[in-house]
Amino acid sequence: MMNERTKEIAEQAGSYAYEQEELHGVLYIEAFKEKFAELLVKECVQVMKSEGEQFSLDQNFDAVKGVGRCMRRVKEHFGVTDDAS
């Protein structure tokens, strides 16, 4: 069962895929899957960034560095860039 934020991300991905006028059928599904995965990974990275900021406030700088490494690794692992979407 998806939570509300995951449903919102799925709706964003669906809107993106629908807006691709040249896409029909299977191509729509592929565009949806790619966009959904990209948005989901970016959301996960944003959660990590928020936690890293809290560690920074607590002056736990080793944790901040660790969170930064995790953020980069997750993006690399899933091939997500910081390009505007």
Overall shape: it is elongated
- Average pLDDT over all residues: 84
Radius of gyration: 16 Å
Please work out how many helical segments DSSP would assign: 3
* End-to-end C-alpha gap: 27 Å
The computed structural class is: mainly alpha
Largest sheet: none
Question: Which percent range describes the beta-strand content?
Answer: under 5%
How many independent structural domains? 1
> What is the share of helical residues?
over 70%
Quantity of strands, as a count: 0
Give the SSE order as H and E letters: HHH
Low-confidence stretches: none
Describe the model.
The protein is mostly helical. It has one domain (4-78). The chain has helices spanning 4-19, 26-57, 61-78. Helix 1 (4-19) crosses helix 2 (26-57). The protein is elongated, with a radius of gyration of 16 Å. The two termini are 27 Å apart.
Summarize the entry for a quick read:
The chain is an all-alpha fold and 85 residues long. It has one domain. The protein has helices at residues 4-19, 26-57, 61-78.
Blueprint (SSEs and pairs):
Layout: H1 4-19, H2 26-57, H3 61-78
Helix pairs in contact: 1-2, 2-3
Keywords:
single chain; 85 residues; mainly alpha; 0% strand
